[in-house]
Amino acid sequence: MTMNDQKPDLFSGAYHTPELAAYLASLAAADEGYASHVVSAMQNAGLRGEAVSAMEGKLLETFARLSGARKAVEIGSLYGYSAHWLARGLQDGARLYCLEKDPACVNAAKDAMEASGLSRKVTVMEGPALDNLKTLSKLAPFDLCFIDGDAENYPAYLRWAAANLRPGGLALAGRVFVKGKICAEGGAPAETAAARAMREFFHVLFDSDRFVSSAVIPTPEGLALGIKAPERA
Fold this sequence. Notes:
By secondary structure, this protein is of the alpha/beta class. The protein contains 8 helices and 7 strands; from the N terminus they run αααβαβαβαβαβαββ.
């Protein structure tokens, strides 16, 4: 096979047509109704575009189910849309701790959880995530951690996950492409604070002493995952 015969690179987007996107969205539309309260609230606030898509939500639900998580953390919850999908994937008796610093978003997330009957699985914690993570460390180990907060703190969030997940636990992180601004034109590293932080995040993610297996799924904004490495003898 010559270079010209090779399939498009995974990240090239060659197959990511508007028609395909619409078709995939239609497959997830029925399940999105489960979160109709939070979808309506985000639309009214002009924030629907800030959350994951329905298909990305189903991906989070799938990972939660596969992990068998009983204790999970979400860093950055906004109105609780992604938390709905994660909670759907958690078994009965499991607990998802959602960290959000904006009081208005905290109240909206709590209302959404009550409306969908998920409050039995979800605890929404208000305040800076790093402060709340210190508190949650007392409840470690966790089975799953989903990072979707401020990009500048992604390295700190992932280091917390590496220290507080059980061996084999799953770290997930959304929006890791930083809107395509990790690299500048020509491939040189971009020098924004968010880009520098995300490169540091990837350095931690692909550290085999911390995560035995790591990958990036080319969703529109990038979804990274890592499996916590076994404890060293």
